[in-house]
Amino acid sequence: MFRLLTGLLLLTGILTTGAQASATAQENRDPVAVAVAEYDLGDTAFRDPQTGTVSEVRAVVHYPRHLTGRAPLIVMAHGSWWACDRMDAATWPCPSGSRPFPSHRGYDYLGAALAARGFVVASISVDGINQTSFDYGDRARLVNEHLRLWQRLAAGRGGPLADRLVDRAGHPVAPRFAGHVDMTRVGTLGHSRGGKGVMWQASDKHRGEWPAGVRVRAVLALAPVKFDDPEGDNSDTLVTRLPFAVVTSGCDGAVREAGQEYLDDVTGRNRATDYSVSLHDANHNFFNTTWTPPFLFGEDDSTCPDRQVTPDRQQGALTAYATAFFGSQLQDDRRGLAVLTGVQPLPGGPSTTRVVPAVR
Questions:
Q1: pTM of the predicted structure, to 2 decimals
Q2: What is the DSSP letter of 351?
Q3: In a domain, 235, yes or no
Q4: What sign does the dihedral 205-232-253-282 (CA atoms) show?
Q5: DSSP code for 162
Q6: Spatial distance between the Cα atoms of 158 and 284, rounded to a whole number of angstroms
Q7: Is 1 domain-assigned?
C-alpha cells in the first residue's frame, strides 16, 4: 500500500493554492512565546440540529502570546474514550461524584508546539458524544459549532466566547483574538474516531455545512478509524478538494493502519496533493497523554511491545509531522515538504511516507 518517496520529484505543484498571500515569508519561522487559555460553555451547550445529541462546548487554546497579523486556526478533536472519570458512569452529563474526562488535554504538547510556530490551536472536548452517540456527523458538526464561535470572535462580533475565553487566572482574553485569527486558513486534526470526524467535516459532501466565512484548507487524520456505512459508499468522508494527511502506526492495536484507505479512496481523483506516514513502531494511545499510562485508565495497546517507541518519541514524531503539514499548507512554509515526502526522516524511529499527487 505504501511507497517510500525519495528525492524531490513530486514537489512541483504540491503546495496547496490555499496558502494566502497574507502569510509572509517570515511568518512563524522562529518559535514564539506561547500562552494558554480555555473556554467552557457547559456540558449541554450544544444540541446537534440533525440528531439531537447533546454535547459540551469546551476547549483548551494554545496561542502565540503576542498575536500580530492574522494567525491560522487549528481545531483538534480527540476520539472515543471514557467520557467521565468513573468507569461505571453511563449518562451525560456525568453523574454526581464524577467529572468529565480530560481527553482534550492529551494534546497539550502538540498545541504548544504549533502555537510556538504561530498557530492558534483549540483542542475540543468530545465527551458527550463519546457517552451517547456513534454518529460521526455529530463529531463533524461539533467541530463546525466551535468554528462558528471562533468566526464571531475573530470578526470582533463577540458571541459566547467574548467573556468565557479566559486565561489560567480566569481573566478574559477574547479581545486579543479579534482581527488576529484568519478563518479562511483553518486546519483540523482528529484522532481515532475524531479522525473520521474531521474527514467527514471536510468532505466534498459536507463542506457546504461549514459556517459562513470559514474555509478549511488542511486536514490531518491521526490513527483514524476507516469504514464506510453503508459499505461501499465512502461519500461521507471523501475529500478530493483540499489537502489532507494521514498518520498511522504499525503497532496500533485499536485500528491498525486502516486510515491509509483514505488515500486509496482519492487516488486518481484528488485535486490537491495528499500525504501519509506510517510510524512503524508506534501504537494508538500514546499520541494522547491522557490515554497513556500512568494516567487514569491509560492503556498501552501496542501489538509489538518488544520494539515499540516511548510515548515521548511517538509524540515527537507526530509533532514534527503535524508542524510540517500545517506549516506547508497554511503558512506556505516549504521546509515542511521534505518531511512530508520522506526526504527528511522523522524522529522517533523508522517510518514510511506516501504521497498521492494531485490530478491536474
A1: 0.92
A2: E
A3: yes
A4: negative
A5: G
A6: 38
A7: no
Q: Tell me the residue type at 320.
A: A
Q: Is 71 helix (H, G, I), strand (E, B) or coil?
A: strand
Using an 8 Å Cβ cutoff, are 59 and 150 in contact?
Answer: no
As to burial, measured by CB atoms within 10 angstroms (0-12 exposed, 13-18 middle, 19+ buried), residue 170 is exposed
Element (H or E) spanning 128, and its range? helix 127-132
Q: For every one of its 360 residues, what pLDDT tens digit does the chain have, with 9 covering 90 and above? A: 333 332 222 322 322 323 332 333 334 456 789 999 999 999 999 999 999 999 999 999 999 999 999 999 999 999 999 999 999 999 999 999 999 999 999 999 999 999 999 999 999 999 999 999 999 999 999 999 999 999 999 999 989 999 999 999 999 999 999 999 999 999 999 999 999 999 999 999 999 999 999 999 999 999 999 999 899 999 999 999 999 999 999 999 999 999 999 999 999 999 999 999 999 999 999 999 999 999 999 999 999 999 999 999 999 999 999 999 999 999 999 999 999 999 999 998 999 999 999 998
Q: What is the CATH number of the domain that holds 253?
A: 3.40.50.1820
Does residue 9 sit within a domain? Answer: no
